């Protein structure tokens, strides 16, 4: 089937931010009296706070989950977001997809302020057709809501879309929408985790995917 739109995750896919989110969550949990290791936190990166927190702290009520998510956002934006840089090749891959006549869509578990910041950081305002994030939906990844909203906004069939993401949660969320995913190792998840989740192809990072563009699922 022809490819009409490519849905890009942000954190760990286009921008090198996963370790900073781990640090922000670690500080947030510590300040709230919870001792959770960096490895356990990293294993949940890619989810929004609405899903990340209950996985790690299943006994918390909804208000406490929401408060921790808000606190992490404040720590991340206050201490880390200005350190985040795009991965090499990120802007050029977005541009290549747009030049091929496909809609470039950002579909992230991040909130709107972070998404807007990254659009500027990637110098991609004129490339990106639309964005969706956790503020647009009820549930973040691995629920399918963010990708489902993106497909609806784009006005295309899910079967004519492709997701680029770095976590198993991207792959799972896309799969629930009937969308295939190219997995990237740049977010720190092992190849096996992405493959087991159902990624149809795996690359080290966006630069490697761009270099192999014509032979990749993006060229369909």
Query: Could you spell the SSE succession in H and E letters?
Result: EHHHHHEHEHEHEHEH
Largest sheet: 6 strands, parallel
CATH superfamily of the largest domain: HAD superfamily/HAD-like
CATH class of the largest domain: Alpha Beta
Binned strand content: 5-15%
Spatial gap, N to C terminus: 7 Å
Short note summarizing the structure:
By secondary structure, the protein is α/β, with parallel strands linked by helices.
What does this 3D model show about the protein?
The protein is an alpha/beta fold and 220 residues long. The chain folds into 2 domains: 5-16 and 85-219, 3-Layer(aba) Sandwich (Rossmann fold), CATH 3.40.50; 18-83, DNA polymerase, domain 1. 45% of the residues lie in helices and 11% in strands. The chain has a 6-stranded parallel sheet with strand order 3-2-1-4-5-6. α1 crosses α4 (62-80), α3 packs across α4 (62-80) and α8 (168-176) runs parallel beside α9. The termini are close together.
Helices and strands in order, then pairings?
Layout lengths: L4 E4 L9 H14 L6 H5 L6 H8 L5 H19 L9 H10 L3 E5 L4 H10 L8 E3 L12 H10 L6 E5 L2 H9 L3 E5 L6 H7 L3 E3 L2 H6 L9
Parallel strand pairs: 1-2, 1-4, 2-3, 4-5, 5-6
List keywords for this structure.
2 domains, 10 helices, about 45% helix, 6 strands, six-stranded parallel sheet, Rossmann fold, about 220 residues, alpha/beta, DNA polymerase, domain 1
